[in-house]
Amino acid sequence: MFLEKLSQISNRIDGAIALSLIDKDGIAVESVSADENLDLELLAAELVTQARTISDHHRDLEVGDVRQFSIATDRMTLIVSAVTPGYYLLLVLGPRGNYGRARFELRRASLLLEKDLYL
């Protein structure tokens, strides 16, 4: 159901390596990837856990829920973006990827996918 939309979104982001729709438990619903050696399942589980932990701390501080966060390494940038309270998008961006465009497209994608997830 979401594979075609994920592929279209990923194709609009220069340098995108993989894009995954993941649930609140870190389980991938659908994924597209240009790197078969990338362990998206493990990345998704790890990063969603971090997103939930950060959200819990921010809720205690009364600064709001986490909508998006990123981690940059020497090999890639990982961006987690909330779609609904129960779903996230995980984008893996290569070192030459367009970070600004990626954030913009993830926001657009959240609005697009949100409708389907609430059906």
Work out the number of β strands.
Answer: 5
Question: How helical, in percent, are the residues?
Answer: 40-55%
Number of helices: 3
Sequence stretches where pLDDT stays below 50 over 5 or more residues:
none
Mean pLDDT: 92
Head-to-tail CA distance between termini:
12 Å
Q: What shape does the CA trace take?
A: globular
Radius of gyration: 13 Å
Biggest sheet layout:
5 strands, antiparallel
The order of strands across the largest sheet is 2-1-5-4-3
Strand content: 25-35%
Q: Give, in order, the helices and strands.
A: HEEHEEEH
Structural class designation: alpha+beta
Describe what you observe in this structure.
- The protein is of the alpha+beta class and 119 residues long.
- 42% of the residues lie in helices and 29% in strands.
- It is built from three helices and five strands.
- Strands 2-1-5-4-3 form a five-stranded antiparallel sheet, with helices on both faces.
- A hairpin with a 4-residue loop joins strand 1 and strand 2.
Key structural traits:
119 residues; five-stranded antiparallel β-sheet; alpha+beta; 5 strands
